[in-house]
Amino acid sequence: QVQLVESGGGLVQAGGSLRLSCAVSGRTISSYPMGWFRQAPGKEREFVTAISWSGSSNTYYADSVKGRFTISRDNAKNTVYLQMNSLKPEDTAVYYCATANSFKWITNTRSTTSYDYWGQGTQVTVSS
């Protein structure tokens, strides 16, 4: 059984930083692309960032977070991280991590349909 547990969310002032963690069990993340998505109230879940499997070195970012957010992985801990700097009120959302539905390669890194297991989400609130 694959389980993902996010942590690290909270309330922060604009300009501040947070680091989210996503601990995975039941799947070895080094062999799978991993992604972070977010969903604000009344909006659809949107892509934030993704990282390819460990045999590649690709990372992908939404334009809205490029230069401010960084995704990384610790294969020894089977954990993915999202470092968020220079946070803005529009970053307020529930953040979800997900593991890809395909071993090593997926066709569309930015689509929710490319991921099959999701965490429960962690709330990030940025005050102005």
Walk me through this protein's architecture.
The strands form two sheets. Strands 2, 4, 5, 6, 9, 10 and 11 form a seven-stranded mixed sheet that branches. It contains no helices and eleven strands. With 128 residues, it is an all-beta fold. The mean pLDDT is 96. 0% of the residues lie in helices and 48% in strands. It has strands spanning 3-7, 10-13, 18-25, 34-39, 46-51, 59-61, 69-74, 79-84, 93-100, 115-118, 122-127.
Write the layout of secondary structure elements.
Blueprint: E1 3-7, E2 10-13, E3 18-25, E4 34-39, E5 46-51, E6 59-61, E7 69-74, E8 79-84, E9 93-100, E10 115-118, E11 122-127
Parallel strand pairs: 2-11
Antiparallel strand pairs: 1-3, 3-8, 4-5, 4-9, 5-6, 7-8, 9-10, 9-11
Task: Describe this structure in a few short sentences.
The chain is an all-beta fold and 128 residues long.
Fraction in beta strands: over 45%
Distance between the termini: 40 Å
What is the H-and-E element order?
Answer: EEEEEEEEEEE
Instruction: Work out the helicity level.
Output: under 10%
Largest sheet: 7 strands, mixed
Structural class, from secondary structure content?
A: mainly beta
The rough form would be described as globular
Number of helices: 0
Strand element count: 11
Task: Give average pLDDT, whole number.
Answer: 96
